[in-house]
């Protein structure tokens, strides 16, 4: 039996729409270096991040968002890039899997500048850094401890989302970085968790 061309295109369009509307992504933490007592906390943040990424609330917030530093992409295309999960920095992995590698900021790897930026009350207010293209995100020990002590998995998940945006090729140099896709999408993930997924 031959399916008429208009009908076959209609079926194909329906299948593609169904697949794209049900796009699912998983979050996998491959390595945790220096996290010691905080590993289970980090995995809990990843689990919440996965739920957020697959939520309608996240999809709508990103697709309707207004961002700077978008690499020329529309909000819809940014959401699609996140859901495709094809990292351009670091070792990468499978598409549709957010591949994370995390470590603690150390003086040996990052120098005194970043250690000083991590200190509570520093002018920089640093939470972490993106690993300079190696795909390994780093977090200030002080911030991780604070998130843990206050049971703030939302902020840790938001940090992972922020750094993951760098792994997808987005940046936030210069002034008004809080308006960038990197910052705002990290905030979206954090806020959805805080409001209850």
From TrEMBL:
Q: Which UniProt keywords apply?
A: Signal
Identify the stretch annotated as signal peptide in this record: 1-23
Entry superkingdom: Bacteria
**This protein is called what?**
Peptidase M10 metallopeptidase domain-containing protein
